[in-house]
Amino acid sequence: MRTIICNSLQSFWDMADNQFLEGLDVHCVFPASENLKEFILNCQNQYKINHISFTRALTG
Length: 60
Hints:
This is Exonuclease V subunit gamma. The protein is an alpha/beta fold.
């Protein structure tokens, strides 16, 4: 399965709205609060995304 890397929230929305993420895995590398992650995950079915994952920021 192909994985698309989204470097920003804007890139995620642009690709999702243009149906470029249908049937694919998506990995988000931009900072996202728990509320934003939940909102994006709730959009998974609407945009027909196979799987969405997020990078966790390391703290020092």
